[in-house]
Amino acid sequence: MEGGGEQVESNGEKVEEVKEGVASIALLPCGSISGHFIQLPQSICYGLHGTELACERECSRGEDYRLIKLTIIDYNRGKEKAVIVECRGHDAARFHNIDHAHGWEEDIVAMAEEKHGKQKIFVSFECETLKAEKAAEEHIRKFMPKLAGLDAVVNIGQMKISGLDFEADDKQ
User: Which superkingdom, per the lineage (predicted)?
Assistant: First the structure.
């Protein structure tokens, strides 16, 4: 698994680096998410926190589809960046940018971007391992102790993030 320097073309623009790694995400009953992303092979860790955005218009896609404001946190620099993603699946989640999501009306996407900002960050996550009940609680106690006892399920899987550049902020 390569960790960076790759070129990806998205919406006709070049994005410098693709961060690839493993994410461990707790899906909380309230609709929020919390977890971490470990970039491989460098073992750089970023925090992940997501809150579900209220769909202010009729959404015919059902409960399986929802918008999440995903915040990626670099604890070493004390910085964070947010991106709007579509979350599909209930316990076994999949995240993708709304730019590439099927089914959201353009006015809803524009409303979310206007309200929460649009950055050129692209996220992809697919759950490969689902932990629930006792297995989830053991994982949470070991890796996310502040979330213990909240009845969350845990998703573990491959995540790719491109366009995330905390170092550029440091240079400004």
Answer: Eukaryota
Burial group, residue 70, by CB count within 10 angstroms (0-12, 13-18, 19+): buried
SS3 171: helix
At a CB cut-off of 8 Å and minimum separation 6, what does 130 contact? 91, 92, 153, 154, 155, 156
Q: Tell me, what DSSP letter sits at residue 103?
A: S
Q: Which two tokens stand for residue 152?
A: 């969350």
The pLDDT tens digits for 103-149 are 555 555 565 555 545 557 889 999 999 999 999 999 999 999 999 99
Name the CA radius of gyration of the chain, rounded: 16
DSSP, residue by residue, 118-162: --S-EEEEEEEEEE-HHHHHHHHHHH-GGGTTS--EEEEEEEEEE
Task: Give the HSE-up count for residue 80: Cα atoms under 13 Å, Cβ half-sphere.
Answer: 13
Neighbours of 17 (CB within 10 A): 18
d(CA 112, CA 54): 10
* pLDDT single digits (tens) 52-66: 887 654 455 555 678
